[in-house]
Known about the structure:
Residues 13-391 form the Major facilitator superfamily (MFS) profile domain. By secondary structure, the chain is mainly α. It has helices at 4-9, 12-29, 36-43, 47-75, 77-98, 103-117, 120-128, 136-144, 149-164, 166-172, 174-187, 200-206, 210-241, 245-261, 263-273, 275-293, 300-328, 333-362, 366-392.
Amino acid sequence: MIGKEFFKAGHPPTLFAAFFYFDMAFMVWVLLGPLGVQIAGDLGLNAGQKGLMVAIPILAGALLRVVMGVMVDRIKPKLTGVIGQLIVIAGLLVAWSLGISSFGGVLALGVVLGVAGASFAVALPLASRWYPPQYQGVALGIAGAGNSGTVLAALFAPTLAAHFGWINVIGLAAIPVAIALVVYLLLAKDAPNQPAPKSFADYAAVLKLPDAWWFMFFYFVTFGGFSGLASSLTIYFNSEYGLSPVAAGYATAACVFAGSLVRPIGGALADRTGGVRALTIMYCVAAAALTIVSFRLPQMGAALAVFVVAMLALGMGNGAVFQLVPQRFRHEIGVMTGLVGMTGGVGGFYLASSLGYSKQFTGTYQLGLLVFAILAVSALIGLTSIKRRWRTTWGAAGMGVARI
């Protein structure tokens, strides 16, 4: 799947810089999730507030992805990424130095962390524009594997908070982001074939195309499921199975690691078998896993195993969606990355907040999980209804180069 031809076709230093930037940005983007148990304990938050706390960075990141997508097309990916990283570093240091003593303060920090989540709209075009169509799945899978930063947050944030306090963890998080900024400045390079900037009318015109909305919905489910669970599982394992914040963080890290690790595999599999076929399988698996786990399995180990399966399917689905997007919207990849990434983030906000409110108003997480499983089935039905048209229109133009 990845050979010498792949490395010769693009720019490996930029691909690594995009991955590392994305990785550290995602680490801080979901930081409130792993710290959620400790923050909620200190501030006395209820289940609904906990769900909203971890969901706000996802929503802010979703909306800001559109802004970053526009900036990518107008001032190029590298400069856009530098601006975003500087804002995140400043926000972390201000929150650490001033302290946070209220629910409103946590939500304000969540909005700033959303800038880190918007890195998606920078890292993927930065990498994508260096690679030809037949390598889009692998290249964007590698760059997108930066969502493994969520693993680092789940592994280390609760433990560090237990020793130094959660507010100091927020300050410490600025260090790896600053290191990523230095690496990014040294290695990242804008591709020579940058598309000409488009007018805002051109961006609006993309939304008139049904395919744009389909891609947005498909990513709403795959990335929304991944990010929503990544932000919520520490609280879930603590609430449902009584795990300590540190143990719950380790369990969450296992799930997130699985979903992050397979994103490049999902992209490579989609390159080989076609993105539509890969997505079909992944939606089936994700829907089944979310349905099973909604019934609150009696053993924590069993629940962990099913969540891992769900995250594997959702993570591979993320890679498969972005094997298809550059083929359909090669010249609008910046704005489409922003739009598709935005709806993925909205999906994560919806899942994380709905889990919190489901727990608060019904006493269980079942309703939130079941509704998202139904959304996965809806995506499967939609994909089945359009795959023939895709394969006989824009997909046919790429025959022999890239498969849909």
